[in-house]
Each structure stands twice: as structure tokens, then as C-alpha cells.
Amino acid sequence: MASTTNHIHENTHHNGSTISHIPKKPKLSSSSSSSSPITPSEIDSEFDHHDPAVARINNGSFGCCPASIIAEQQRWQLKYLRQPDSFYFNDLKTGILRSRTIIKGLVNADHVDQISIVDNATTAAAIVLQHTAWAFREGRFQKGDVVLMLHYAYGAVKKSMEAYVTRAGGKVIEVPLPFPVNSNDEIISEFRKALERGNSDGKRVRLAVIDHVTSMPCVIIPVKELIKICRDEGVEQVFVDAAHSIGCTDVDMKEIGADFYTSNLHKWFFCPPSIAFLYSRSHSKGSDLHHPVVSHEYGNGLAVESAWIGTRDYSSQLVVPAALEFVNRFEGGIEGIKKRNHDAVVEMGNMLAEAWGTHLGSPPHMCASMVMVGLPACLGVASDSDALKLRTHLRDGFGVEVPMYFRPLRDGEVGLVTGYARISHQVYNKVDDYYKFRDAVNQLVQSGFTCALLSD
Fold this sequence. Notes:
- There is one protein chain.
- This protein is an alpha/beta fold.
- It folds into two domains: 101-323, Type I PLP-dependent aspartate aminotransferase-like (Major domain) (Aspartate Aminotransferase, domain 2), CATH 3.40.640.10; 333-453, Alpha-Beta Complex (Aspartate Aminotransferase, domain 1).
- 40% of the residues lie in helices and 14% in strands.
- It has 15 helices and 14 strands.
- The protein has a seven-stranded mixed β-sheet with strand order 4-10-9-8-7-5-6, sandwiched between helices. The chain has a three-stranded antiparallel β-sheet with strand order 11-14-13. Strands 1-2 form a two-stranded antiparallel ribbon.
- Helix 3 runs antiparallel to helix 4 (84-107), helix 7 (184-198) runs parallel beside helix 8 (223-232) and helix 13 (333-356) runs parallel beside helix 15.
- 46% of the residues are buried.
- It holds the Pfam family Aminotran_5.
- Residues 1-46 are annotated as: Disordered.
- Keywords: Pyridoxal phosphate.
- Residues 97-360 form the Aminotransferase class V domain.
């Protein structure tokens, strides 16, 4: 493991809690002499378990995991299976603490207890929205007070709003966002309008849920600017749903200033599924923030509660040191990977848009490692169902895996692009992956294909 993950000294209190003494934050770039920079052939070897028949340009949905980290995960799994009691009493707590400590450094948090490890960003959203629901139920928030979220919030988060906030008496207001989008100002303007609606008629916006990188369509949201507006307008708490952020765009808890922030590590930080962190600015043991799965650690603080939710496979949460070691084999570490992915995906997006006579869904500065690319209008993407059927057709018929998005025409619009593809770039991708996608779409266009020809 990288040397920065080995020097963690721990003292165990009589109640089982652990205090760590960490000499410095983990190294985030690859200047270590302990391993040589990774070569193209080694990258190929790390991902040779990927299906070679598929142009996999959808890292955003499920991420990827290198062979070396899979091997480390299997080592942890076997260690547990060999002697579960020893693993539980001697390895699990310290291993998760080590992972939390690395994440703390990666995101520039003040204290390791601000970092809890959970299954994924959906779990983190449930934790925060459960906390909000209790505030409505217990009278700290008034019936009809508002929770604000973006229209492009992830579908599971919208369902969590129904399950927790609406049922508890809260009102949910969605911020409509333009797409295609040309500037941050367009997003900021719509956000201000929604805040004004939320704070009208004697009601208050109690919580704002803001994406950092929206999923579909994908756009980098100006979170720091929106959070400042929230503070100025008296919004009580801000939760940033940043499922894609760590390993994809800049993440700094001190600069962003959210009350809660979550990101997956299995999307862009090479961990196996599933692992995410939830940052909570307030991390006292008496906090009313709890894991929705109640186990023996209930009441000992969210980080401790989350570290044990019953017998399960915790191996994906224990390989963060190996993931850090992997990214540090690349020039510039994770920062270098992010820049190269961004530059490559913008280049490939422009290549596709030029080939199809379309456009990108946002300017390059509003893209991270994913870009929306307009599809030829003649494909006839006329519904969400068409977008899904086209995605399936490309997978099954052409060996191309890429998500599709339907953008309805607004009143008065005619002949504009209604279908977009969300392309990703990760270190394993090759130019040929995008050429394969280009050629598949061109073949469909030349054959007179439309989505109406696809059966349900």
C-alpha cells in the first residue's frame, strides 16, 4: 500500500471507539518512487476483464475496477471467510478507519468523523432526507415548508423525496433547468426564482438538494455559487448529491461549504461496487443523523453506525488504500486523470457532433469526464422509451454501450435535436470506442432507421 496509508496509529477506548493520529493527508499525485508510472500495456492488463466486443463509453453509470483492486478485494473477502471473528474484532474497524482517513484527505474535510462510508449516494440521500423527515414530524420544521431540488436530480433521489419529505408534510419544489445549457448564469437565475417561490406565503426553504454533476443530462452545477445564495437567503441546510464527483471533478469540503455532501467511489475512483462517502459538517456523537439500517452501533455517531450495519461484505469499503495507490501510478495522480479524461471526452464529443452535424449539450467548462452529444434528428427520438430502445439497439446490434436522453421540444420548436448521448471517458477507453459509436449511428442514418421501427 502507499506509504501514506500505513502510518495510522490507533488507541482503543473502553467503549470500542477509536481515535486516530494521522501525521498528514494522503498524497494525491504520483511522485512516489515506490512504483513506476503505469504503462499503456499495464492499463490494458488492468481492464482486460472488460468485454472486448463492447465499446464501453458509459463509465458514468457503474464505473470500473482494475484487476489489482479486484485482487485486493478478494484478499479481504478471503480474510473474512477464513476467520470471521478475527476479521470483525481485529481488522474491520481499523480498515474502515483507514479508508475514511484517506477520503478525508481527498475531499479536504476538517475531521475524520465528518466522513461516513455508506453503500452508495442513494443510501446517503436516504440518511439526509430521513433526517429532514424527522424534523417535520417532530415540529422543528412546519408543515408545508419547502425542500428544493433540481429538476435533473437523480431519479432515486426524487423517489426518496416522496418516501421521506412529502409523507412527512414537506413540500418539494423542483428547479427547472435549461438544456442545452450555455452558462452557469442560466442555472443560477432559475435557482434564484425557485428559492423565491419556496420562501413565499410564509413558508421557508429548509433544505436544498443540489447536484454537483447531474446524471442525465450531465452538467457540472455551480455548487459553490448556489450554496452561497442559499446562505444569503436563509436556507437552513444544503445537501450536495455528488454521485459522480470524486475522481471526476474538483471536490473540496472547505471551499464548497455544504452541510452534507456525498459521492460514490465506485464510479470514478476505481473502487468495486459499492462504496460512497457521506460528509456531514456537524459530526457530534449526539447528532440526529442516523443510518437507516439500525444495528448495534446506533447512537454512536453516523460514522460508527455506518461501519457496522450487520453481517455483509465490507470488502469494497476496505480497498480505498489500494485505489489511492492505483491512481498514484498515473502522471499527476487523480488530478492528472481528471484532466486527461475531461480533455479526451470533449475532443471525442466534438468529433461526434461534427460527424453528425449536431452540437454538445453544454460548453466544455460545464463538462467533467462526461459530455452530452446531440444525435441526428432523423433518428426520431420522440420519447424516453425511444431513447431506451435506441440504447438497447446499439448495445445488442453494434456492441456500443452508451446512455441516451430524450429532450422534449418546447412550444414553437421544430426540427431541433431531441436525442442526446452521454459519453464518458475513463483511462481504459480508446479512440476506437468512439469511432465505433460514430460509425454505428452513421450506419443507422444511411439505412433510413428511425426509433419508430423498434418494437417495445
